[in-house]
Amino acid sequence: MTDTDFDVVMQGTVFFDIVLTGLPALPTSGTESLADGMGSCPGGIANLAVAASRLGMRTALAATFGDDVYGDFLWRTLAEQEGVDLSLSQRIAHWHSPVTVSLAVQRDRAMVTHSHPSPIPTSKLISSPPSALAGVVHLGENAEPWVAQASATGMKLFGDVGWDPKQEWSPMVLQQLTDLHAFLPNSAEAMAYTRTDDPRAALMALADDVPVVVVTCGGQGSIGIDSISGEEEWVPSLPVNAVDATGAGDVFAASFVLGTLRGWPLRQRMAFANLCAALSVQQVGGSLAAPGWGDLADWLAQVSELARAGSRAATVLLHSYDFLDGAIGDEPVRAVRRASATIARTSDA
């Protein structure tokens, strides 16, 4: 990696997430459901920022934070615990931090959010592109002003999209792909925006507009095309017991950015991103479920032990991830914090 201020920069909204797990089904009117598990953590764009930082990338985040107790928790967790640079971010007096309740049900989730528009739009936080190797861009109705400038300077830009509540899936959004190096939608988003009914058809349509496209397909893994290198890959997902899928797409994106900056082949980038996402869904909480290098080292050691014991499945898996051994050897192995059920540490004391 070259000499820049940051490895990756991103902007967006940070939410205070309350994640409830173990629900048999979504609640219906007039009923009460009991959740087996609960966690609190930074959400929204923080999912991606924490995932990137835990993989050792120098991560800068531009976001607004309220001056309430939620904002205190979010700022402290990101800056002090996770090492995310918040020099592009601002605290806002008398503004309520956005809150999301995520209900994890049967390998998926539904969310309820309460928020007020920020008095300072996030687009105002970055007046000019910071010095960074990569940027992550959320595509919406309007392109962020700094994106075209960043692309012109050589910054590799990775884009994603979110669910369109109006379900209009405007093709105008795809016009923003011209500034991107890579586009990482899920299969539902990719098919909706391209007006196709098959993930691979959507992949091929998007490949005409952006050099690298990867479409995530949930339990079926991911499919991708790198038009620069001429690679086309399908990488299956890993079989895991999913507890909470919140933030899995963000973990995938952060991991793919890392693999790109390291110059890995497309299959390795996708396999690494699949693995990190699979490890994340086994924990509660989007951002604080993201794996660190210690988690990856533990996983590789477990698979190696199973392979030595004669497991054919583990042997095949180990062959697919033989590149990981060298990558882990270059990284500091440290423990990472997981989401906890409460933020009321002061009153608890």
What this model shows, in words?
It is a single chain. This protein is of the alpha/beta class and 349 residues long. The protein has two domains: 6-26 and 34-291, 3-Layer(aba) Sandwich (UDP-N-acetylmuramoyl-L-alanine:D-glutamate ligase); 292-332, no CATH class. The protein contains eleven helices and 14 strands. It has helices at 45-54, 69-81, 145-152, 187-194, 199-206, 248-261, 266-280, 293-308, 312-320, 323-329, 345-348; strands at 6-11, 14-21, 37-44, 59-62, 64-66, 90-92, 99-105, 108-114, 132-138, 156-160, 182-183, 212-216, 222-226, 231-235. The strands form three sheets. An eight-stranded mixed sheet has the order 4-1-9-10-11-12-13-14, with helices on both faces. Helix 1 (45-54) packs across helix 6, helix 4 (187-194) crosses helix 5 (199-206) and helix 8 (293-308) crosses helix 9 (312-320). The radius of gyration is 20 Å and the shape is globular. The termini are far apart. The model is unreliable at 345-349 (pLDDT under 50).
User: What Rg do the Cα atoms give?
Assistant: 20 Å
The CATH architecture of the largest domain would be 3-Layer(aba) Sandwich
Number of strands: 14
- Average the pLDDT over all residues and give the rounded result: 89
- Total tally of structural domains: 2
Q: What would you give as the CATH superfamily of the largest domain?
A: Ribokinase
Structural class: alpha/beta
Strand content: 15-25%
Distance between the termini: 44 Å
Q: Helical stretch count?
A: 11
Percent range of helical residues: 25-40%
CATH topology title of the largest domain: UDP-N-acetylmuramoyl-L-alanine:D-glutamate ligase
**Large-scale geometry:** globular
SSE order in H/E notation? EEEHEEHEEEEHEEHHEEEHHHHHH
Which CATH class of the largest domain is shown? Alpha Beta
- Largest sheet strand order: 4-1-9-10-11-12-13-14
Poorly predicted ranges: 345-349
Main sheet attributes: strand count, strand direction, barrel closure: 8 strands, mixed
